[in-house]
Amino acid sequence: MEPAIRVNQLSKSYASGFKALQDIDLTIESGEIFALLGPNGAGKTTLISIICGLVNPTQGQVQVAGHDIVTEYRAARSKIGLVPQELTNEAFETVWATVSFSRGLFGCPPDPDHIERVLRSLTLWDKRNNKLITLSGGMKRRVLIAKALAHEPQILFLDEPTAGVDVELRREMWQVVRQLRETGVTVILTTHYIEEAEEMADRIGVIHRGEIVLVEDKHRLMRQLGRKQLSLHLPSPLQRIPPSLNGHQLELTEDGHELIYTYDVADASADECGGIATLLGELRDAGIHFTDLNTRQSSLEDIFVSLVRERQ
């Protein structure tokens, strides 16, 4: 199957000399949810804007569903729906009118049944005759998604889709995105909310200072780069870690009341059935007792922060 997006050696420089993107290579498969993560100014929005035909690249090639964005602009753009970060709705238009108008912009014939399906899927049907100025911020963001879906695109870009909305609405939006993927729509989202990518994405891409530093399956990424920590709470403070335990990655907290054992999730020799059992036996032999223990696994946020810090 043809990839939804194929980017080859894409760069963007401005007259000031600033390089927003440098030699980007990226392939996004049809039907996946792809999350693009990066700090402010990393190049996320620039990359999306080039793919969507809103910004001209300095060099490189981009194909959308097999169509070149320069030589086959109209065909490429018709495959894309874009939900921008900013709320820019027409305040005094009705929901129905603004979504129907967006369909017409792409030269699509009127299709009230499709518009109804889109509005119902986004819980906007009861608001179809409301003017946009009367809607809440969350509802306005749903209207942006409805406008992007009006011309039946194969690929949907969501630039910070849940910025500024409350936690409950954010989770509702996540469900909407999952439903879109189930209908065959490829979804690419940029987000500052790491839990959003962790919850929804099939693959994660990390962009930093205009360069793609990593693209990986989400679960594989967390297995490869994730770590676990076992915290052992001691009944009395320990002055130092005995030399007999130097073979383990152990740290002692400043107050001496907690030992922290860190190990890689992907390291079979250090898992709960191996390394931890050995460690507990050696603690017992060293006369160290504990009153409680708990484990913590690295989150996607921990991994993201670590990757960015390494490239500062």
From TrEMBL:
For this protein, the record's Gene3D superfamilies field holds: P-loop containing nucleotide triphosphate hydrolases
The protein's matches in PROSITE patterns, at most eight in alphabetical order, are given as: ABC_TRANSPORTER_1 (PS00211), ABC_TRANSPORTER_2 (PS50893)
CDD domains according to UniProt: ABC_DR_subfamily_A
Where in the numbering of this chain does the ABC transporter domain appear?
5-234
Pfam families reported in the protein's UniProt record:
ABC_tran
InterPro entries given in the database record = AAA+_ATPase (IPR003593), ABC_transporter-like_ATP-bd (IPR003439), ABC_transporter-like_CS (IPR017871), ABC_transporter_ATP-binding (IPR050763), P-loop_NTPase (IPR027417)
Q: Name one GO molecular function term.
A: ATP hydrolysis activity
What keywords sit in the KW lines? Answer: ATP-binding, Nucleotide-binding, Transport
Lyase keyword on record: no
Name of the protein in question: ABC-2 type transport system ATP-binding protein
What species is given as this protein's source?
Aidingimonas halophila
